[in-house]
């Protein structure tokens, strides 16, 4: 696995421009703060929704036999760009100790459930 942050591109502490990992690419459903019953955890609370969303990502990875280090790209859809600091905190905690994936952050008018504040889409490279 290696990361690439080419000179001349804006450098960040919360993502890498490229993360290369061999394996089979997996494109799972975007994850939100729904619990196993489909109830939104943290209605109106971005910190709680970030925590539940990353908890769900962890469960998804476990089901794949993967780890956070196997995530090579995330796309975060958010209903308010002011939520960025909370999302970055949750992201850094989730990826603590591993190389950060590439990342895209998109402001949207709404998500599948109006109670949802963010959704995180992933590309995971499952080791062969």
UniProtKB/TrEMBL annotation:
Family matches, as Pfam families: Ribonuc_L-PSP (PF01042)
UniProt cross-references to Gene3D superfamilies, sorted A to Z: RutC-like (3.30.1330.40)
PANTHER family xrefs: 2-IMINOBUTANOATE/2-IMINOPROPANOATE DEAMINASE RIDA, PROTEIN HMF1-RELATED
Family, similarity comment: Belongs to the RutC family.
Phylogenetic placement of the source organism: Bacteria, Pseudomonadati, Pseudomonadota, Alphaproteobacteria, Hyphomicrobiales
Cellular component per GO, a single term: cytosol
Protein name in the entry: Endoribonuclease L-PSP
Gene Ontology molecular function terms on file: deaminase activity
């Amino acid at each position: 696995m290696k990361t690439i942050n080419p000179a001349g591109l804006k450098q960040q502490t919360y993502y890498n421009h490229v993360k290369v990992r061999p394996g089979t690419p997996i494109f799972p459903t975007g994850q939100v703060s729904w619990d196993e019953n489909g109830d939104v955890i943290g209605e109106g609370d971005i910190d709680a929704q970030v925590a539940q969303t990353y908890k769900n990502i962890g469960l998804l990875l476990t089901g794949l036999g993967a780890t956070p280090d196997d995530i090579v790209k995330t796309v975060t859809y958010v209903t308010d760009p002011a939520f960025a600091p909370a999302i970055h905190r949750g992201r850094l905690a989730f990826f603590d100790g591993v190389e950060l994936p590439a990342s895209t952050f998109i402001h949207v008018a709404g998500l599948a459930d109006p109670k949802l504040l963010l959704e995180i889409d992933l590309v995971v490279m499952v080791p062969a």
